[in-house]
Amino acid sequence: MQHRGFLLLTLLALLALTSAVAKKKDKVKKGGPGSECAEWAWGPCTPSSKDCGVGFREGTCGAQTQRIRCRVPCNWKKEFGADCKYKFENWGACDGGTGTKVRQGTLKKARYNAQCQETIRVTKPCTPKTK
What we know:
Elements: H1 2-29, E1 41-42, E2 46-47, E3 53-61, E4 64-72, E5 84-88, E6 100-110, E7 119-125
Antiparallel strand pairs: 1-3, 2-3, 3-4, 5-6, 6-7
């Protein structure tokens, strides 16, 4: 009987903790605790060291300023930024003259109101086929 009571108490504590974490996340998404501001303007994610990894993003709304943690993927494309998400076509055929292949991407999502191009073209060197 004591084991069942302990198990029930542990389950209730876990549920309370999960609920508290969910409420905290909701407050952060709305602009922080006690924030009445609706239109936040967020800057780019700036890595703490090097050019990728964990960093911070600053946001302003009126006289309020906030800093939130963010992460820049280490495989991000610097030409169009980490906050611009694109849907890419398949790679085209290899251009023998330049030794590169090309594909086009259309904007899927702009995070934190980033200024993104609607379509982009990216290139990469052709890989020699060895068989």
